[in-house]
Amino acid sequence: MTDTSLIVSHLAIHPVKSLKKISVDQAAIDAMGFVNDRRWLVVEPDGKFMTQRQYPKMALISAVPDAHGLTLSAPGMSDLIIKDPEQQAEVSEKQVVVWKDELQALDAGDAASQWLSECLGLPCGLVKFSKQVHRQVDLRFANEGDRTGFADGFPFLLTTEASLQELNSRLDTPVTMDRFRPNIVVQGTEAYAEDHWQRIKIGEVVFRVAKPCSRCVMTTVDPATGVKTGKDPLMTLSGYRRTEMGVIFGQDLIHESEGIIRVGDSVEVID
Predict the structure, then answer these.
(1) Residues 30 and 115 in one domain
(2) Which residue among 106, 129, 152 closes a domain?
(3) How, if at all, do strands 80-83 and 227-228 pair?
(4) Burial class (CB in 10 A: 0-12, 13-18, 19+), 1
């Protein structure tokens, strides 16, 4: 069905998993999702991935990508330029763990480790996703060959403005969409209309709606302060959005082709 009222109102990438988002006017899609989205990862010394779930201060760190690597910034810290390990003559690999997946990643070096360790107050390091690695999306919801980078499990997360507005109507203190860290935000829907979509088209790119996104304690971190603010919005969501897949808000997507999508693009619900 075509509804010209549905448009993309916001796009975002998160170059380093669980660090600050970057809003963009357009985003290119490659085999793993948006280019520069969750291609870098902060890890504990043993390689276990780190997120705002345990380390909410990560919300205050920004990572801006360029053709040669990343620039890290945070309050009270001098900026640090990180060279892309894939562009170095010698590359060190490090085994990392993201949920149940064990992956070989590329170590971003001692300077990045020292900077992040000082910023967060505990030993940690930075790695980049290796182009030689194929991280298969969960085959219960995906096809063989569907892949992603360091995202929790899927290349894209879509939310809608109407769903956030409906949630905020139930909260004593409204929250911003940044609590949910979507890649794609759509306006012009009814609240939770996205629950019923199976395939959509944005620009020239078709996406399959893989599954609802189950939410966690990370939604309780205020992205502006890097501090957990209490039990909401998760507690309120759990009162009316609990399913067999957990407390849901938004939909995980898998793309069927590469391309570019833009803020202002129409969203066509195919089925």
Answers:
(1) no
(2) 129
(3) unpaired
(4) exposed
Q: Are residues 147 and 229 in the same domain?
A: yes
Residues 112 and 199 in one domain: no
- The tens digit of pLDDT for each residue in 227-248 reads 999 999 999 999 999 999 999 9
Structure tokens at 103: 């992956």
DSSP per residue over 139-175, as a string?
Answer: TTTS-TT-B-SSSSSSSEEEEEHHHHHHHHTT-SS--
Q: How far is CA 50 from CA 83, 156, 254, in A?
A: 21, 20, 24
> Based on the domain organization, do 100 and 79 belong to the same domain?
yes
DSSP 189: P
Q: How many CB atoms neighbour CB 23 within 10 A?
A: 10
- For the chain, the average pLDDT equals 97
Rounded distance between C-alpha atoms, residue 51 and residue 115, angstroms: 17
Which of 98, 129, 160 is the last residue in one of the domains? 129
Does residue 173 lie within any of the structural domains?
Answer: yes
